[in-house]
Amino acid sequence: MYLCNMLLYNVTVIMEEPIAADWLQWMKTTQIPTVMATDCFVSYRLLKIMDSPNEGLSYCVQFISENEAKHEEFRNLHEQQFTAEMYTKYPNQLVSFSTLMEFVG
Question: Which end of the chain lies in a sparser environment, N or C, as judged by fewer CB atoms within 10 Å?
Fold first, then answer.
């Protein structure tokens, strides 16, 4: 995979332990396929954070876009809905934040 100009959109989610199994299943079967269907990303990873300083469990969902235009398309057309759906499904049970990273090597 050619990495120049590619971006990694990382969403970190910190949740209460009782919802973790349901959240993982929902992400794998519903949310990630929905995000990937936007055609804004070429691949994704779902990771569990092993050494999180936070209470509860922490996961990262990483989506890779080919360029800034594709990420901006996601941000402008889909990101708000993606975030709202998660908070609606799991009210007061999780928090999330996102970061955008550029591949440099």
Answer: C
